[in-house]
Write a structure and sequence with these properties.
Keywords: ATP-binding, DNA replication, Nucleotide-binding. This protein is an alpha/beta fold. The chain folds into three domains: 3-26 and 179-241, Helicase, Ruva Protein, domain 3, CATH 1.10.8; 39-175, 3-Layer(aba) Sandwich (Rossmann fold); 244-341, Up-down Bundle (Zinc Finger, Delta Prime, domain 3), CATH 1.20.272.10. The chain has helices at 3-14, 19-22, 24-27, 40-50, 69-81, 99-113, 134-146, 165-168, 181-195, 201-211, 215-226, 233-241, 244-256, 260-273, 278-290, 299-318, 323-341, and strands spanning 59-62, 89-93, 122-127, 151-157, 172-175, 198-199, 230-231. The chain starts with a helix and ends in a 7-residue tail after the last helix. The structure holds adenosine-5'-triphosphate (ATP) and magnesium ion (MG).
Amino acid sequence: MNYRVSILFILALEQGMSIEQLMWVEKYRPKRLDDVVNQKEIVEGIKRIIASPAGMPNMLFAGPAGVGKTTVALCIAREVLGEYWRDYTLELNASDERGINMVREKVKMFTRYTSIGSIPFKIVILDEADEMTPEAQTALRRIMEDSASTSRFILICNYISQIIGPIQSRCVIFRFKSLARDDVVNHLANICKLEGVRYEDKALEMIYEFTSGDLRHAINILQAAASHGTVNDASVRSALGISYKARVGEVIRLALEGNFNDARLKMLELTKVHGLSERDFIKFASEEIMKGAIKDAGANTKGAELLRILAEYDYRLVVGAHPDIQLAALLAELARIGKASSGGRAGK
Ligand SMILES: Nc1ncnc2c1ncn2[C@@H]1O[C@H](COP(=O)(O)OP(=O)(O)OP(=O)(O)O)[C@@H](O)[C@H]1O
Ligand SMILES: [Mg+2]
């Protein structure tokens, strides 16, 4: 997303528009299984299962980013639980929550304090389950068993190999695939039509090439390109040029040049306006440093040291330190290192 979009974003948010109305990824997130793009076998299998909801098993969704895992989980909750599905659905992120004890407490409270009434069970959606340690997963397995009479779990992960055997064997496993070129291009074209935005087929194909089957990423780039008026070669190139990774690289470069304030503001824009998670920020930063993209700021010689520092802050986030404070501290440390390596001169 580009600068122009982000200013519009802030203005619109101030006028009380919701993220759902503003972000096309949310606006066009399917609400019913029938509207999910591709993933045909999975959707068919799930429809058969939820035709008699009482027999719904725990499920494990695996697959790459942005292909519909969370979307399908939410569709199931809507279709099985009906109008008040939100009241009976608990969405947790295993890597955000402060460890398995928090998961246990939240699940316990959730299953204890809301009455079940006319619904068959409550649904717990646990994202990023593969980020949990094997010990935490063993505890999770216990929690799943203890709440078997009241709840069903949908666990979501990228890598199924990171999920312990005892959990795998207690779930029906669905493997999501990257979306194909036609799926992505047609979906993007539909969104353009609904938004009344002019587009060129070639430009949509270029977005597919860049995002290789990650529909979330593709829609975000489409929205950024559309902010230039038309989705064509030039607007897509411009949108791609300012994709998250490049912008995170820019933040790191500013910090290394000693420009802490600008770096911090841009970092906040990425995390607060664009919703980039703090851990993704660190991940992208390390990818950019490894690519040597930040070499002109002295990262070549300092590369190893920078990666060590990023790993340390990544760890602090995992163990639950405050993300805003940690990222600001990270940038301050980079600014200090940048100054030291340029012989005490801040910036260039
Ligand atoms: N199969 C799909 N059909 C329709 N829209 C999709 C599909 N996959 C992704 N999207 C779009 O991308 C957005 C993100 O999808 P979703 O949250 O389901 O991805 P995910 O597979 O859970 O990815 P992650 O592993 O990064 O959490 C959705 O809001 C929707 O707009
Ligand atoms: Mg998801």
